[in-house]
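Follow-up to my post from last week.
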Amino acid sequence: VTDIRAMIHQICYDAKALSGEQGHEFNVSIGDRHLLTGDESQLRSAFSNLIFNAVKYTPAGGSITVIWETDRDGGHLSVKDTGIGIDPVHIPRLTERFYRADPSRHKETGGTGLGLAIVKHVLLNHDGNLEIRSQIGDGSEFICHFPRERLAERLPETAS
Ligand code: ATP
Ligand code: MG
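User reply:
Got it. Predicted complex:
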């Protein structure tokens, strides 16, 4: 069982270090039911990829909003930024290995194009899926959906 709340706070702490003097603003909101049945290191790698991407593709001073919410269908983690955005024509291919949108726009940002392929596979391993919403110049939102069956009631240590 993974505690989403603790994990997201850790990742955002590291992401602030990555942002450094760029001074991105971080807004984090985690709902009350924040335990998920799943592989902790896989989930950490998926969520870090999304949150580090948000820093990488958002100019200095932009903001990054991370929200975990549950509803009757399950739970979802939204990672939203006010960054450069993505031309919607690229969206269907973004989770392919080595695919990078319009590389000319990324002269200064290194990367291999594997991050979102990892995210997709981690979500598949957890019966979930990735939703991507973006427009050029209007920021991006990546939403990780998990089914209700993945929500856990308590950490194993505290189970009676
Ligand atoms: P890597 O993650 O392997 O270091 P990468 O960041 O280029 O390299 P992905 O994380 O798979 O690779 O992302 C694929 C492409 O999707 C990126 O090259 C970029 O074009 C686009 N992208 C991903 N996240 C964002 C975002 N938050 N805003 C704008 N574009 C993004
Ligand atoms: Mg990346």
